[in-house]
């Protein structure tokens, strides 16, 4: 298999081989997990996870804008270490925790293939979000991206991320919001928090595996905020600033409304929370 035209340039043959190995692993995982194996999607995921010099998910841009002094940073469920490596390239004191062995193995191979410092290896440690292997009040920022919908215990993960934060530290959460009408792992229209028995019938009609369905948590922004509020920590949850709407009437307003509803069934709704731990 040849890399897609959009794939990154490679410094050497080892990097190219690593990209191909990663592509194969992702394709195998996706076919077993959700069946959402559109070639462009698989190439895009592979490029994003491989190209750690890029800020593909936008989190570093948000962090850089909101925090002048970043301090010690943890990525919970760091995957193949793309966010972590980008932070290390920026000179940040960044760490990651990841439960899946194959992703940690890829991380080590990427460091070797790209000629990164050997000291980077120790920055990705094995562990689960429900039991983070770090002491209390250790990090200035903890972040997690597209992870809470997969974990065994959402509330325990939230509690652990807040536990390892220093007072005044930040928890930055990005995850799918299942109050929307689109399921991003399967890439299909989906009723909000659909009953899993009905969801299984729907997905079987589409010829999709049910592995992802059995694992997913139907989380929403409202529920995450509620769960954080019940934990034994004092927090302040920031909201994204809203953009003023332009007043429109008549046909123009109708057309815009129709386009918006068409997008509802094609676009992922996101939880995007910036939580400050007071104490």
Overall tally of domains: 2
* Widest sheet, order of strands: 3-2-1-4-5-9-8
Taking pLDDT < 50 over at least 5 consecutive residues as the criterion, the unreliable ranges are: 241-248
Mean pLDDT: 91
Instruction: Give the CA-based shape.
Output: globular
Number of strands: 9
- By CATH, the architecture of the largest domain is named 3-Layer(aba) Sandwich
* Fraction of residues in H or I helices: 40-55%
Biggest pleated sheet? 7 strands, mixed
What oligomeric state do the depicted chains represent? single chain
For this structure, the CATH topology of the largest domain is: Rossmann fold
Rg is: 20 Å
For CATH, the homologous superfamily of the largest domain is named as Vaccinia Virus protein VP39
Quick structural gist:
With 279 residues, the protein is of the alpha/beta class.
Structure description:
With 279 residues, the protein is an alpha/beta fold. The protein folds into 2 domains: 51 residues, no CATH class; 169 residues, Vaccinia Virus protein VP39 (Rossmann fold, 3-Layer(aba) Sandwich), CATH 3.40.50. The chain has 10 helices and 9 strands. The strands form 2 sheets. The protein has a 7-stranded mixed beta sheet with strand order 3-2-1-4-5-9-8, with helices on both faces. It has a two-stranded antiparallel ribbon with strand order 6-7. Helix 5 links the parallel strand 2 and strand 3. The radius of gyration is 20 Å and the shape is globular.
List the helices and strands and how they pair.
Blueprint: H1 13-33, H2 39-50, H3 59-66, E1 72-76, H4 82-89, E2 93-98, H5 101-114, E3 124-126, E4 139-145, H6 154-163, E5 165-176, E6 182-183, E7 188-189, H7 196-205, H8 211-215, H9 221-230, E8 235-238, H10 250-264, E9 270-277
Parallel strand pairs: 1-2, 1-4, 2-3, 4-5
Antiparallel strand pairs: 5-9, 6-7, 8-9
Helix pairs in contact: 1-2, 1-5
């Amino acid at each position: 298999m040849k890399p897609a035209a959009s794939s990154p340039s490679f410094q050497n043959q080892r990097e190219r081989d690593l990209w191909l190995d990663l592509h194969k692993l992702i394709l195998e995982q996706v076919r077993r997990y959700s069946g959402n194996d559109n070639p462009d999607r698989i190439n895009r995921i592979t490029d994003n996870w491989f190209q750690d010099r890029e800020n593909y998910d936008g989190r570093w841009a948000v962090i850089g804008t909101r925090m002048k002094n970043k301090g010690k940073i943890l990525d919970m469920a760091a995957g193949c270490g793309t966010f972590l490596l980008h932070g290390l390239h920026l000179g940040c004191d960044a760490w990651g925790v990841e439960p899946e062995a194959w992703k940690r193995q890829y991380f080590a191979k990427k460091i070797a293939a790209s000629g990164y410092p050997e000291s980077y290896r120790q920055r990705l440690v094995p562990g689960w979000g429900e039991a983070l292997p770090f002491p209390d009040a250790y990090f200035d920022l903890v972040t997690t991206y597209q992870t809470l919908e997969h974990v065994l215990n959402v509330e325990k993960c939230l509690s652990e991320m807040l536990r390892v934060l220093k007072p005044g530290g930040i928890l930055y959460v990005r995850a799918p919001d299942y109050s929307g009408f689109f399921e991003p792992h399967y890439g299909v229209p989906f009723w909000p928090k659909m009953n899993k028995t009905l969801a299984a019938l729907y997905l079987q009609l589409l010829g999709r595996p049910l592995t992802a369905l059995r694992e997913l948590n139907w989380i929403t922004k409202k529920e995450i905020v509620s769960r954080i509020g019940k934990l034994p920590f004092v927090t302040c949850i920031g909201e994204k600033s809203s953009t003023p709407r332009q007043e429109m009437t008549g046909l123009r307003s109708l057309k815009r409304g129709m386009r918006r509803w068409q997008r509802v069934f094609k676009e992922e709704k996101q939880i995007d929370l910036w939580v400050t731990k007071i104490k």
